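REVIEWER CHECKLIST
Item 1: Sequence provided? yes
Item 2: Single chain? yes
Item 3: Sequence as submitted:
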Amino acid sequence: MRKGKKRFLLRIDPELYEILERWATDEFRSVNAQIEFLLKDAVRRAGREKRKRSSQKDET
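Item 4: Structure as written out by the authors:
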């Protein structure tokens, strides 16, 4: 179970931020949500997401 989201400071090029801001607006997201969406997508594409174990099948 998650306790909440991790907070951290991100320094980013102002031009890149403006691009992300426009993109987020186009997709009805905040810049923070857009960055999180892009990072999750990159993790998924790279095959780096956590593998979910089927503990019920392992226990039988």
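Item 5: Key structural point noted by reviewer: Helices lie at 14-26, 31-45, 55-59.
Item 6: Recommendation: ____
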